[in-house]
Amino acid sequence: MRGYNREDIGYVSCSGLPSNDGSSCNAEELIGSRVAFANAELRFPIIRRYGARTSLLGGLPPIDGLFFYDAGVAWSKGQTVSLSQPTDYDFSKQRALLRSYGFGLRMNLFNIAIIRWDWAKPVSRPNGKGFGTWFFGASY
Of the chain's two ends, which shows fewer C-beta atoms within 10 Å, N or C? Predict the structure, then answer.
């Protein structure tokens, strides 16, 4: 999920205590044998090829902009799932819906691959800062 750092997988730093604002939680919650995910994305053209290839913008690959909202949860057998994080949250026994929003750019690299850049803000981490990520490959 965009907005949750997958590099932190394996490190447990989410206590779930009311004194913990959730900003130190990591991507451990993204691991499970079952998953549900939803994405709403609005894409719009920024640069398109118009007319002859001799024009100034004719040689540039198409670039799209986008706004998105992601929501998802991963859980395993024996864990309960809820839409919001309860006050006595223990991610080893419970899982809550994680959400994020943001914007991005997509560039079609001559129909070979897609270069993506996304900036995402994790909603489920109250003091979590947004960050950008690059990706080179197929786009969904």
Answer: C
pLDDT in tens, 95-108: 889 899 999 999 98
SS3 72: strand
Q: Provide the strand spans (E) within 48-130.
A: 63-75, 80-82, 94-96, 98-109, 113-122
Cβ neighbours of 32 (radius 10 Å): 15
Burial 42-81, CB ≥16 within 10 A → b, else e? eeeeeeeeeeeeeeeeeeeebebebebbbbbbbbeeebee
**Is-above-0.85 flag for pTM?**
no
- Residue 38's H or E segment, with its range, is strand 34-47
Return the closest-CA partner of residue 92 out of 29, 36, 30, 34: 29
Which stretches of the chain score pLDDT less than 70?
6-27, 49-59, 139-140
Tokens 């540039």, located at residue: 60
* Residue (of 49, 45, 46, 44) closest to 60 by Cα position: 49
